[in-house]
Amino acid sequence: MKKLHVSASREYDIIIGSGLIKSVKEILGQCTSARKFMIVSDDNVFPLYGKTLISELLSDGKSVYSHVIPHGESSKSPKHYIELLDALAENRFDRSDCIIALGGGVVGDLSGFAAATYKRGLELVQMPTTLLAAVDASVGGKTAINLKQGKNLAGCFYQPNAVIIDTDTLATLPDKEYTGGCAEVIKYGMIADKELLSLTASVPVKSDYEDFIFRCADIKRGFIERDERDTGCRMLLNFGHTLGHSFEKLSSYTLPHGFAVAVGMAYITRAAFKMGFCQSETLYALLDALEACRLPKHIDYPSSDIALCAMNDKKEVAGEINLIVPIEIGKCEILKVPTSELIIWVKAGEADA
Ligand code: NAD
Ligand code: GLY
Question: Which helix (H) or strand (E) holds 181?
């Protein structure tokens, strides 16, 4: 078992290890005095792990309720948000009670937003069950739901009481979800940890989940402690995401997030190399890691469509966009680029035939 402590607007621990669901009583005892719990999960994860979690809580004399949502991004919606608030109100939850988010980033983001807003704030424990949620979504307090106009448009920062990552739950993760999560691990290597990047190219992340997740969560902890509200260095976590979001959109969201981020990282690093921001060693280290994790490095969309899509992204401010550009392995910088110049970056990012 490994543990990290996050010093943000709320202090909390991230606990990573095997079999943690079965020792959840002891961990919860140290991070919340709640006696009543709402387990929020989805219809894939709840049948796998819900029963064990409930019986652990019941054996500790807690009151336990559960709220199961359909799996998938469409559950991060106003409708499912209101249904969750209704379930809390119908069961008379108050501010001393606790939500446990048992699932991937969809469950985590929805539960977090409900916990932040129901009666102005409930206790919240994140129990991520996807690699992506373990290394990214469960840590750092970003909560959100989607509106019909776009992703994550309603949300707030709300740090949890604890993040409990039982690595055993990742054993049932479908291949596609595992591979997508590996893209985020590679991202951490590229922005902050040269050794981590080379590890992703040489050993499978699943061969030592505890160590890989610990390293990623520790890097994210550092960014959150320096920039909780995402106005400075936390933006480095968006490496590969600016163009990644365009690829997701152009594929009508059929391309999984992690795969889109992988291609986004490849484009921006090829462009950075061609424009003299980094050496070829940085580019080839990234491409090797993507190859080893069976992630894509190119996609066939016209450059003009990719650039237009990125220009229309909500992150554009006063005609400029922040691009996260690699300087060397383990080091990226935030570069303000006029949106009119994005096309140059996209063209330079294309793989040579
Ligand atoms: P997800 O929650 O949709 O989970 C992916 C799929 O895996 C689902 O079908 C789920 O039912 C299934 N699943 C989850 N755990 C499983 C397990 N252990 N065994 C079997 N099946 C399992 O997707 P995700 O990739 O975890 O998260 C994506 C969401 O996270 C997006 O909405 C994204 O916006 C959000 N996100 C948030 C942050 C943040 O900082 N808050 C960061 C990154 C992503
Ligand atoms: N997923 C990026 C962040 O939490 O800032």
Answer: helix 175-192
